[in-house]
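Hi there, hope your week has been kind to you so far. Thanks so much in advance, here it is:
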Amino acid sequence: MNLKRMFTITKKEFIHIKRDKASLAIAIMMPIMMLILFGYAVTSDVKNVKLVVYDEDRTVESRNLIEKYANSNYFKLYNIVDSYDEIEKAIGADEAKVGLIIPYDFAKSIRRGETSQIQILVDGSDPGIARTAAAYSVMIANNYSLKVKEVVLNKMGQKLGTTAIEARTLVLYNPMLKSALFNVPGIIGLILQNITVILTAFAMVRERERGTIEQLIMTPVTSLELIIGKLIPYVIIGFMDFMLVLILGYLIFDVAVKGSLLLLILFGTIFLISALAMGMLVSTIAKTQLQAMQAAFALLLPSILLSGFIFPRESMPMIIYYIGNIFPITYFLEILRGIILKGIGIDLLYKNMLYLLVLTGIIVYITMHKFKKTLD
C-alpha cells in the first residue's frame, strides 16, 4: 500500500466534503439535533397527564382528593367541569386523558365509615399512557383512602379496617388496550408523510441534476403550471398509499374506521398537500439527491419523535413539546386516532383541523415563494 497515494485520495475527499457545505452542515448538526431530541423526547415516563374532574360533592374531602391528583407529578389538572358529558367530550377531543368523577355523597360516606366509590375514565386510545395513568389513579386514591380512614377511625376510637375510597377505572375507546389500535392509525400518518416528502424531494432534485428543469423553464410553461403538473402524480400516489394502508390496516390488524370515512379522506387530502409542500421545500434547499435524502431525514426524524407517535408528548419538556406543534403530522395523528379509533366528528376535531390548515397554508406559501425564486 502506497501511503502517499492513499493520503492524496483522503485529501481530495476532504476538499470535496468542504465544498459540499450543505452535507457538511447536516453532518455536524444532525448529531447535535439527535442528541437533544433523543435525550429529551425519548422517554417512556408518563407524567403531566391532563386530568379533567367532575366534582358532584364539592366538599373539603373532595377538594383534598383533587389536590392529591393535581399535586402529583403524574397528573396535571386541566379543568373542572359540571357534567359527565363534559368529561367524555374533553377526553374525546383529546383535551384530557383521564377523567375523575367524585359522587355527591363522597364526604358523607367517608364520615359514616363507609366505602365511597369514585369513577376514573381513562382514554384507551394510547394503551401505554392508559395503563400507567389507570395505575397511578388507583394508587393516589388508595393512599388518600388510607389517610382519610385513619383520621376518621381515630375519631371513632376504632382500628383501620375497610377501605374509605374505592377507585373504579373505566377505559374508553380501547377497553382491551390493544396496541394495534393505537399504532396502526399513527403508522398510516407516517407512511403518508414519509413517502410523499421523499418522493417529491427526489423528483425535483433529479430534474435539476439531469439539467431537464432548465429545458422545462425554457418552454411556455409557467412556474405554477410546472409546480402543479409535477405534483399531481405524487398526489395520486400518496392518495393511493393512504387508501391502501387503510384497507390493509382493516384486513390485517382489524382496525376499522369508526367515524366518517369522508371526513378522514378530507383531512388526509389536506395533510397530503402539506407533505408535498414539505417535499418541494426540501428540493429547493438540496442540490443533489444525497443532500435531499439528508435534508428529508433531518426533517422527518424530529417529526416522528415529537408528534406523539411513539412517546407521550405530555412528558416532554415544554420547549420540546412546543417544537412538536410546528409539524402538521402532530395534528394529523390526533385526527387519525380521533376518527378511526374514537369515531368522533368535526365538532371535537375542529381545533386540530384549524391548526393543520394554518400550518399547511404557511408551508405551501413558503414553498411556492422559495420554488419560484429557485426557478427564476
